[in-house]
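Handout, section 4.2: multi-component inputs.
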Amino acid sequence: MSLEAVAKKAGVSTATVSRVLNGLTVVKGSTRARVMKAVAELKYHPNLHARSLAGGRSRTVGVIVSNLDNPFFLDIYRAVESDCHAQGYEVVVANTAYTAEQLASSVRLMLGRRVAGLAVIVSEVDEEVVAELSEANIPVVFYDVGRAGKNITKIRVNYRKGVERIVEYLTSLGHSDFAFITHHAALGPLNERQNALYDSLKIASPKATVRVVVDSDSLDGGRQAARELLRSAPVPTAIMCVNDLMAVGVLKELRERRIRVPEDVSVTGFDNIKLSEFCHPALTTVHIPRDLIGHTLFHSLTPDASGSAAAGREYVIDPEFVVRDSTGPARSSDVFAR
Amino acid sequence: MSLEAVAKKAGVSTATVSRVLNGLTVVKGSTRARVMKAVAELKYHPNLHARSLAGGRSRTVGVIVSNLDNPFFLDIYRAVESDCHAQGYEVVVANTAYTAEQLASSVRLMLGRRVAGLAVIVSEVDEEVVAELSEANIPVVFYDVGRAGKNITKIRVNYRKGVERIVEYLTSLGHSDFAFITHHAALGPLNERQNALYDSLKIASPKATVRVVVDSDSLDGGRQAARELLRSAPVPTAIMCVNDLMAVGVLKELRERRIRVPEDVSVTGFDNIKLSEFCHPALTTVHIPRDLIGHTLFHSLTPDASGSAAAGREYVIDPEFVVRDSTGPARSSDVFAR
DNA sequence: GGCGACTCTGTAAACCCTTGCAGAATCGGC
DNA sequence: GCCGATTCTGCAAGGGTTTACAGAGTCGCC
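Output:
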């Protein structure tokens, strides 16, 4: 079970076994073979805790996300995971459910695990956590929140650009009566999208109106929000959703009410999750390159070939507008007038 | 940073600090306060590796699943996670991508982490792994594969019953020309569904035909399979999918080809993932209670109030047939005849 | 055959915590 | 004020690895 048992069986010292297992020092071929044999026979698994403890490092990176149930976050996690495994790292993931408390406890957990690096992909970061992390002395990377610093990299997406493209497109189709469906309105990154919406509209269509509805970040939340929205006339001609997941919920509710998309109402999402392509009608949305984000996250956390992690940098990633079938010209007469 | 630093700062021994932090022994109020203060001031995080090493236990449970990208597995994982956190356990998850190699390496990883218990929710288990796990001397629970044993619990779902219900329903609607869309045909649990299909049909509609198409377990895989299926006439009147994820892909492809569901073709899924309710048409499927599975998994891994984990048991969970809008009477004339 | 230079291996300390055991402090009761 | 019981605390061993350091072999060459 332990290194010592293997050592005894192979007739060597624990140091030698350790060296064989880690393979960074040269061990004579015959010795190595004996050790390997003993390892196999004993079905020995090194105790990872002891290893991390003794080694000081851990070859594990931590990932903290807001909502694993949203495929957007899952995709990022999976991208990081894939890079990690390719490089022999493990990943541990934690979910905050958009709460600051769970973020704080997840951070503590990760620090307790002595992760080699930590990716924080949440919307609810607070100053205290940032401070704690910058003192932690491990590479940290924030997505969307916080700011670059000593050992802190930051990655953000130019949401504004994505929103602008949507607004341009929709206004060019004659829309001026908007709804914005979002979740947890207080959160920074979402505010950015909302503010970008106002700003863009101010230019593209100054007299446009926007009704905002807030619900939870889920299919049901989107549906619920649509229901709320439709409770009071007039029905907007375009519904922009803060993300695809909620948009798909919206589509469902509209369909149940026999409101046609895009003939009666246009709907847009954000993220371009796989689902947006498979729902009906396929969703007009903004693609956020989760793969690229994942790779960048991983890169920011691990010392690369050149030896040092490029901490302190700030990356900005551009999204990409994707037109599909959920958007069309604004309806001319209000078929929903009561 | 270390226990010792805290101890020094608080003017006590490391043992006392440890006791304060773990709270299982009584420590005098004033001492406790001093220690807590020191902990706070130093922003001390216990080193979890050292803790697990010293304590011998780890309060971490491992979960291994086949395909995290399928919401079915994600839901189970999340259910386990939620129970774990409620009881102060951590969870670590690994994905096998349906390969035996990744399963083996995940198992080794988990064993190396000295997890307190391990849930194996995969389709590709082999004997060697089972043997290794039963020697590991920690509670293990298999979902769908393996068999109960010394410290091994097994949970399985009565798929057969679900398939029977689908078949009964479809044949009663006049269907006799079937397709079965599945993935990785060699895997046990999926075979069970497929065999159940044959068996049920033998009774319900002996002259019925079944065409089988295999593709990957994903939205794209479902779509691809549908494409493959439609390549050769005649188009079946009912397409049964091995799970909802693939079924949603099938729906997409059918829609693109203007094949109406359920008027022209009926489609069924399996699992009842959230998405099956939000796609269009909403999917007729078989509900598999992931929450219940998750709770049962957790229960099987952790010593309950009575002190001992109920290992060696075998649980069978019944699925539930859910009729929605993707199924209807078989079309009478073959509108697709060429 | 002896010497130096390598190559390989062992010894032992360190990593940070938990916990059994025993000693110290405190308390109640007389 | 003393004693025993009780509560609290410290000592030190151990848990399974890594790794610096030094020692033991091996080899080639003069």
